[in-house]
Design a protein that fits this description.
The chain is an all-alpha fold and 74 residues long. 58% of the residues lie in helices and 0% in strands. Helix 1 packs across helix 4.
Length: 74
């Protein structure tokens, strides 16, 4: 369920098809996001899931699954 919400957010933010986003997809390398896209997406995730993402956690995010794990952990 968390993956689907994150995937839908990425589809909307990056204009990609849902089929192109897999848990192992690297957000910058595979999906074409830049660091600003990532920061904006994390701010949206914080609001949507009512979580707080630390700077250390932000730096460790590489894949879509990293985001899902972060949300599930919080």
């Amino acid at each position: 369920m968390t993956f689907e919400k994150v995937r839908d957010m990425l589809v909307e933010k990056l204009g990609l098809s849902a089929d192109s986003i897999k848990p192992e997809s690297e957000i910058i390398k595979d999906l074409g996001a830049d660091s600003l896209d990532l920061v904006e997406m994390l701010l949206s995730l914080e609001e949507t899931f009512n979580i707080e993402v630390s700077d250390e956690e932000t730096e460790s995010i590489v894949t879509v699954q990293d985001i899902v794990n972060l949300i599930d952990k919080n």
